[in-house]
Fold this sequence. Notes:
alpha+beta, five-stranded mixed sheet, Methanol Dehydrogenase, Chain A
Amino acid sequence: MKRGIPHPHTADAVGRAARCLAALLCTIALSAGSHERPVGRDADWSSYNGHPDGDHYSALADINTSNVGKLEEAWHTTWAEPGDPETNPLVVDGIVFAYTPALHIVALDGATGRTLWTFDPGLQGIPVAPGVRFTGPARGMAFWRHGKERRLLAGVMQYLFAIDPSTGRLMTTFGRDGAIDLREGLRGNPADFYVSLTTPGIVFEDEVIVGFRTSETHPAPPGDIRAFDVRTGKLRWQFHTIPHPGEPGSETWPQAALPAAGAANNWAGMALDVDRGIVYAPTGSAVSDFYGADRVGDDLYANTLLALDARTGKRIWHFQGVHHDVWDRDFPAPPTLLTVERNGRRIPAVAQPTKQGYVYLFERVSGRPLFPIHELSYPASSVPGEVTSPTQPRPDLPAPIARQRLDESTLTERTPAAHNWALEQFRSFISDGQFVPMAVNKPTVVFPGFDGGAEWGGAAVNPRRGILYINANDVAWTGSLVPTVNGGGLGSALYQQNCSSCHGPERKGSPPGIPSLVDVSSRLSGDEIASVIRNGRGRMPPFNAIQSYFLSALIRYAETGEEPAGAPRASPAERGNQDGGRSDMQASIIDDPLPAAYRFGGFVKFLDPDGYPAVKPPWGTVNAIDMNSGRFLWTVPLGSYPEISGQGIGQTGSENYGGPILTSGGVLFIGATIYDRKLHAYDARSGALLWEGALPYSGTATPATYKAHGKQYVVIATSNARTPGEPQGGGYVAFALPDR
């Protein structure tokens, strides 16, 4: 495919006509004004990230730069149960709607934290296998109202529930007795796939538009974006993120790959231009994430920002941020709508952050880049069968929000011993910046790491000034490919297929985020390991299709790295008998464990022997960017490691998950940091730290602000899921100014 400066792609005459129409609509929109959402005093936080446009903004100003230092805890609620909800709660009419760590849905009094009702998805007749519990991130919900009708649309793993927000009871006219199974209607047997609604859908008129999280290896369903009727649950439209044969974009795939290709899914969330009826949906990579010999080509619409007609699902324009992704460079965050000024004109725009640290800016209707984007050349892969793209896009402005290249001058100097260790390790790596193809059995530096740059928290914007605020990780990781070992035993095959991409071929993981499985039997019983595999835990998805005979073999291998003595290779008939007849997928795992010649060698965070990032600080930042000019206004470290903060090495910053919110009082609130367990408040104009509030667990979520009984509150979800060595639990903490 010929490439120049990226622009919305059109594949046929219909596409060219649509592009012309889009340009005309853009001209009309610009001449008519900016169509901004009115900035008024809004007591609610009724959409994920504040509003459908994803602005993370509140017009409330009772808490402002002059008094934020007086904030104190108003209430808190906790649950002593493991889980990682990462929820940006909704607040409507003073009622907070949120998830518990175990993914129960609760309504809390916004002034006191008192529980008003609880919805337990496990008590609703949902066909859950014995011993399986609901788990994983649940970052928010959607709220719909029309006249006196109101519905809370909440995802719990593969189910989308419609709940009466007044009572917590199911709206049984929706879907099947109040729920939709999002695995259905994609491809094949729904039970063969992992699907989870980790980020909420977005409401437009009387429909809810959803994506989902899924597996990053085969088998995975195609990541179709779908709209459902909010009253009935009936499917309204379905956009194929992996085109069907003959559809526009299918020419960027090998035709033989299309029937089984998977992912390219919208897991990070969306933004909606309500006035224009356009939904903006970023997608992730196609499976398998790191070796794409079976999908040679650009692989549309993976790693793509899609602009779709919200009423029909028809594509208006798109931009692919990574061609043929083999680095897991998903678009990791929902886009943010804003208005920028150019040559005296106010232009409706959409900003899209990336894991690699770029922030792209486009006109909303036409998709025209508002800063130049160039296709730069990168080296070809040396791995047999792999064909990487010769070029990848990069915007001229803004500058990246995280460092782009690791060399000896940027290695840690925390202690001489840590530096010497890092230098020795670094000299065994491949390190040449972005989009360097991974090699076989030799670590390649990924910097910023697999968790960004930007992550799922996204950005906040000042709707009056066009200033974007975004946090970033600045930690290096490494990755490599390893040859597939075929002909091994059952446990080894299952481990390679399902576990090694995270826990590594030697079961060492990348602690603390990805635990080691070496000596796991000293920490967990066989039944507990089975429960984690079936149910998932934290960021690990469930693998509930692995049953009985297969599960015991996998557990044995995970515990010891060895096959059970004399373990037989069961015949397909025996497997069918032992697993209730559901043997097709599992039989393929055994008979042909991994058809790919190479697989990912595992995520490895570049940490020094003491567990700190092996690069110079800052390890995490929060940034303010003037999107009118692309100029940075300020950057400050975000977060700290309390145990080393007094050792004279300054403010280090730290890993951070969850995004900021901005108020018209001029305060930028953000939690996100793991180790210091604080909610932070910054002066939005200068970046000065104005206040920090202590949290019982890490505030790895995006906060919300609202009014209840005439008083402004700031609330944030907390959990210890990212610090597994600490007591597990989670809850919500709300702060407010003291009563006079």
